[in-house]
What does this fold into?
Amino acid sequence: MKLLYFIFQTPDRSNGGVESITQVLERLPAGDAHIVTNRESLRSERWVRAGHTVEIWKLPYDFGKEMPIITDLSSRIRLAVSLLDTNLKAFRLMRRLRAGVAHCNDIISLMHAGPGVRLSGGKVVFNIRDVKSDGVYGFKWRVARNLASSIIVLSREMLEQLRDRMPPALSFKREHFHQIYSIVDRSRMSSVEPEQRAAIRAQLGLEPDCFHIGIVAVVCEKKNQLALVENLPQAWIDDPGWQMHCIGDFRPKTESYARRCSEVVATRGLEEHVRFLGFAERVEDWYRALDLLLVVSKREGLARCMIEGISCGTPVVSFDVTSAREVLEEHGCGLVFRSGDWEGLFNALQELREDSMRRDRLGQAGTRIAAKLFQADQVVAAYQQHYRELSGNIAESGQRDAKI
It folds into this structure.
């Protein structure tokens, strides 16, 4: 069964949504997937190595996590022409490949390919990987809901929040939604013995007697690193016994948010405490070396750093972004606080800093639950089964039409 994937990538190398679907693609039989993307990247190289066909459709604009920002008439025209062009290509590609199902990995790829897929008679699987922090979904959601034959979410909390935030005019049909967790690659993301952990810390240049906290995420407004450094208590600033490592794309020369983070670190005298390290190819070494992982994002779907961190045996302290309570609290592998409760967050960090045995218990629980929930075989099987069901519905529909 040939499957068509539309995966439009942002420049961020640590994009968790693209990494999640890449983990699935690497485990599909070679040649099963035809992938359309907008740029060459390390991940597109991995798709090719997995034996799949990769086709590049360059777009006339760049974008971050959302659709391009429309500021003037020429931008509107450029976007409209691009959408028409890519949807016509999607229509032709579906017909040429005789593909029945197309997977759109985010709202950008859905808008650029979904209408063409549907016009070809195909089914659209829309993978939602993020949830709004508050409010009701508007126009884009209405379009997405009507285009998608099926919507895949990453956790029960995502399903509940989407139901609550759906516009009143749209009916919520639970059978339209399917929950499938992300994969964690246990060959990379696993805990190590204390001796090996000490060796990794030494290799990374981490002081052995220091308490090491990490944030694994691109430095951007959504991930909220600026608010974190702004809200660091003075008692922590005066304490020399800890360091915070921000691991993820960091571009202070070209991005104002990253530049502002650097400025606040300098203004508050945090240079000895807070380090912006940029993208790390072997992020698993950092997970294993850290004493604690932080998630302070404004919103998430299922934070990849959270599930990879617990798989490596590192306890997580998180704001109550989507899926945090479901994963961390329900399974006893981390602590969750109301978003914006900086006092509660730092009090918990201090308590865990002073209680290594509790950190160990949380870490061990995380390793166990990650092996159970985010197992590659069961996640890939769930996707394959869902694709087969949609393809079967297309075949049944065609048979009914032929009889008529």
The chain has 16 helices and 13 strands.
